[in-house]
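Consider today's protein:

***
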Amino acid sequence: MSTVKRSPRPQEPDVRLMVQFATIRMEFVACLTAALVFVQDVAGRHFCDVTVGAAHYADLPRLPNERLYLQP
């Protein structure tokens, strides 16, 4: 049985987020709005680097608490 999590904004494209800490790299999928708000939030804290990619990989997990990043 598939446990695919759906986007909170299915009308938007999904993007790939690559989050790099000093020694740990994590990759997620998020809707465009959540990805952009997440990048803005992270940029203000400077504790990791984030790269956004256009390629979507179905096997990646969705960004944890993605819905929290739908509003700036």
